[in-house]
Design a protein that fits this description.
With about 800 residues, the protein is α+β, with helices and mostly antiparallel strands. The chain has 5 domains: about 70 residues, Phosphorylase Kinase, domain 1 (2-Layer Sandwich); about 160 residues, Transferase(Phosphotransferase) domain 1 (Transferase(Phosphotransferase), domain 1), CATH 1.10.510.10; about 80 residues; about 170 residues, YVTN repeat-like/Quinoprotein amine dehydrogenase (Methylamine Dehydrogenase, Chain H, 7 Propeller); about 190 residues, Methylamine Dehydrogenase, Chain H (7 Propeller). It contains 11 helices and 50 strands. The strands form 15 sheets. It has a 4-stranded antiparallel beta sheet, with helices on one face. β49 and β50 form a beta hairpin. The radius of gyration is 33 Å and the shape is flat. About 15% of the residues have low confidence.
């Protein structure tokens, strides 16, 4: 190719590969100037039906032009216009878009900006992909012949002219890897296509936010909602296709556009089959009912087809047969519904349906479903909201005048059985009060102070609440009337325990609650014991249903069954799941072993409520993640600028130190499945691994030595319930290298280092009887040094401590106290 003349351009040298082809430096022999000349693969010739065709690029009368296919119609963005497309149109267009992407990808081309505005829908209803302006050509061994001709004879490796690490494309449709500026392959287009399918199906964007940073966060961490109000006609299979296309891990996503096309074709066949069956039946039951579904199955068949083919007056025996079929259908439908209602919950399939889709900046804090299943009441930082579940319509409850500007945090409480009102709890400055909210409108009305409402009796006559807050929570359980009248104490506990989540049994004969107890043992980590207990409506005949420190919430769904959520301790303690335990409704005692119902990963479950018939559960699904942020201190160190995030993985990441030059942050993270130590330079996107971590050698408490040359961290090797287990102190050069062992000890609340001028590192140990903290010099090279000071301690207490920057003082604070001691 080098030295050849193409048209009036003489090829001089290869510059690189970027966009849709290979770029060369060439001389324009007509105008005597240098140009960048790009050669494109002949993609359109292979699939003109689904990609806008370019007929000619030329020059006439000293003006350059591009001649391309004239299209009549509108863009897909205009076609959607914030309204979902009908299922047939969606599937047909989706198949054609997938076909176009498959054609591009098979020629090594990644579009990188798939969005509705870049897809044209012709008047005949066909889809064509436009604007390959951001497209990138991936050079492979099996490139098309056109690309091979262009690259023939090149002696140097073609480089991508796009700057690595830059995010190109339209933000709302970017894949996670595109948002992070990572190397892209064709799977990025499949994620964007999934976002387009979502918008076609719902009329709204899957990832939203008020700023670009919020959108990026939604793409990286959020999950799009499929609330029924978006489009109740969507076939279930389409949601599965979109979910797989929007998988954040590209290895778990669709790998080829042809796979999406095949699934859409399969879905098209299924929806057509269902439509034919429905059209061929005449159900004598209400549309949408269980009876109607079974009637369709019974009455579709050759007999109906024959009647349609040869219309005429029905004979009496046919009328009788139709009536018999209708009656039989109704009986079968009722029987099926009863089986579903009375079948053990463990045998039912629990399918999730997301009802809210808030951003991380405005996350839903809690909520409850109404007894009839029509409404969801929930609270976020913008207020209390009431959502009609069937349509997704939502209105905000006005704030009471007396709480305006108070910063009150609300916890949505129980609904009354008639579904016209619910209770909610407002907390301001550690004081909680109970309010009643009408679903018909108006501001909340206060009915009790210093109390938390938990449940309303099935007949609506009694409200159960807790009060008398201690160190662990409320220590008393009371009953009162629906307007706060006639309070009556049921249960009381000492300061070492508390009550929460008190709920009525479905028959109103007993109450169940969470009983929290703090277990303290000298030199062992404090732990909580959480038990699901029951008592009768007078507070008598207590019994324990289940006890575990991992219980989070529960609900009494039927007289003989309680379901609860509990945390999984493995692999990382970040998941909750539903369990079921059978109970005797008379005594409230368990009568069988707990049974696990779900295996859902990566989120926690609380605020469990259910409809009155026990057929639908509502729960609050949430996850917590820590990231590393930095901010600039203001003058005098009394203020800070808005922090900005510098780590963006979905792992937990905790900052622990700065490098001596303040140009990088040291943090530890479980991003690799084990706790390791990393260094994040402020002027770089990439992170440096200092300690990888491993099973049985998790890294903890990383600190930078006073002279800034060493990273000192603890390697936890002992699996025990001791508060401060035996650990190995390790050192590694701050710029990377092999870890080296220093010494072992039971380090009390980590170790600390002063600034460079003091050149001092310190660690603490607690004596065997728990009565003294001993502070000792730590030398990164020599190890354990001389004793510095001792401090008398409470064996059951927990102490925070730190060394002053100049290395002359040690500050100590006992947990739960407000007095700092200085040595």
């Amino acid at each position: 190719m080098l030295g050849r003349t193409i048209s009036h351009y003489r090829i001089i040298e290869a510059l690189g590969g970027g966009g849709m082809g290979v770029v060369y430096k060439a001389e324009d022999t007509d105008l005597g100037r240098f140009v960048a000349l790009k050669f494109l693969p002949d993609l359109v010739a292979h699939n003109p039906r689904v990609i806008c065709t370019i007929y000619e690029i030329g020059e006439a009368q000293r003006r350059r032009f591009i001649s391309m296919e004239y299209l009549e119609g509108m863009t897909l963005k205009q076609r959607i216009s914030e309204r979902p497309l009908d299922t047939d149109t969606l599937i047909e267009l989706g198949i054609e878009i997938a076909e176009a992407l498959d054609a591009a990808h098979s020629h090594g081309i990644i579009h990188r900006d798939i969005k509705p505005a870049n897809i044209f829908v012709t008047k005949r209803g066909h889809a064509k992909i436009l604007d390959f302006g951001l497209a990138k050509l991936t050079l492979k061994d099996n490139s098309s012949s056109g690309v091979e001709d262009v690259t023939e004879g090149m002696a140097t490796q073609v480089q991508d002219l796009t700057i690595p690490g830059s995010a190109m494309g339209t933000i709302m449709y970017m894949s996670p890897e595109q948002a992070l500026g990572q190397e892209l392959d064709s799977r990025t287009d499949l994620f964007s296509f999934g976002a387009v399918l979502y918008e076609m199906a719902t009329g709204s964007l899957p990832f939203r936010g008020e700023t670009s940073a919020a959108v990026f966060d939604s793409i990286l961490h959020g999950a799009p909602a499929f609330a029924p109000g978006f489009n109740p006609e969507l076939p279930a299979g389409l949601e599965l296709i979109i979910d797989k296309a929007l998988e954040k891990d590209r290895n778990l996503r669709y790998q080829h556009a042809s796979e999406i096309r095949a699934d859409l074709l399969r879905l098209k066949r299924q929806t057509q089959t269902v439509r034919v069956a429905v059209a061929g039946s005449t159900a004598a039951t209400q549309p949408g009912s269980a009876s109607a579904s079974v009637a369709t199955a019974w009455r579709s068949g050759p007999v109906d087809v024959a009647e349609v083919a040869k219309p005429g007056r029905k004979r009496p025996w046919k009328i009788a047969l139709s009536a018999a079929l209708a009656i039989t259908t109704l009986l079968v439908a009722t029987f099926v519904v009863r089986i579903l209602i009375h079948r053990p919950l463990a045998e039912r399939e629990l399918k999730q349906q997301q009802l809210t889709a808030n951003s991380r900046e405005n996350a839903v804090a809690n909520g409850t479903i109404s007894p009839d299943g029509k409404y969801l009441a929930y609270w976020d930082v913008k207020g209390i909201h009431l959502q009609l579940i069937a349509t997704g319509e939502m209105r905000t409850i006005p704030q009471p005048q007396m709480l305006e500007g108070s910063g009150a945090e609300w916890s949505i409480g129980p609904w009354f059985p008639d579904g016209t009102r619910f209770l909610t709890n407002a907390t301001t400055e550690q004081h909680t009060s109970i309010w009643v909210v009408s679903a018909l409108g108006g501001a909340p009305r206060k009915i009790r102070h210093e109390a938390t409402a938990w449940s309303v009796s099935p007949d609506g006559s009694k409200v159960v609440f807790t009060t008398n807050t201690g160190s662990l929570g409320d220590r008393e359980v009371w009953l009162m009337g629906p307007n706060g009248e006639q309070p009556e104490k049921l249960l009381a506990a000492n300061d070492g325990s508390a009550f929460a989540a008190v709920k009525w049994s479905p028959d109103g004969e007993r109450l169940a609650y969470l009983r929290l107890r703090l277990i303290q043992t000298r030199q062992h980590e404090d732990r909580f014991e959480i038990a699901i207990e029951t008592c009768d409506s007078k507070g008598q005949s207590p019994s324990t249903v289940f006890s575990s420190s991992t219980v989070r919430d529960f609900y009494w769904v039927s007289p003989g069954r309680i379901i609860y959520s509990r945390a999984d301790t493995e692999p990382n303690g970040k998941s909750d799941n539903f369990w079921e335990v059978p109970v005797d409704p008379r005594t409230g005692e368990s009568v069988g072993q707990p049974h696990r119902l779900t295996n859902w990963p990566s989120y926690h479950i609380d605020d469990i409520t259910a409809t009155a018939d026990g057929k639908r559960l509502a729960f609050h699904r949430w996850s917590a993640q820590s990231g590393v942020y930095i901010g600039q201190l203001g003058e005098g160190g009394t203020s800070i600028t808005t922090p900005r995030r510098i780590t963006f993985t979905e792992a937990d990441e905790l900052p622990s130190a700065w490098t001596a030059d303040s140009k990088a942050v040291i943090f530890f993270s479980d991003r690799n499945g084990h706790w390791g130590v990393f260094k994040q330079p402020l002027d770089q996107d990439s992170v440096e691994v200092l300690v990888t971590g491993a099973k049985g050698a998790e890294a903890d408490s990383p600190r930078v030595s006073a002279d800034g040359t060493w990273l000192l961290y603890q390697e936890l090797t002992e699996k025990t319930d001791r508060l401060w287990p035996m650990a190995r102190l390790m050192r590694v050069p701050i710029n990377g290298g092999l870890p080296e062992f220093v010494f072992s000890a039971r380090f009390y609340n980590s170790h600390r280092c002063s600034r460079a001028e003091a050149n001092l590192c310190v660690f603490a140990e607690q004596t065997a009887d728990g009565t003294w903290l001993v502070f000792t010099v730590l030398d990164p090279i020599r190890g354990k040094g001389r004793e510095l000071a001792k401090f008398a301690t409470d064996p059951l207490g927990f102490y925070h401590w730190d060394v002053s920057p100049d290395g002359k003082r040690i500050a100590i604070l006992k947990g739960g106290e407000n007095q700092i001691h200085v040595l």
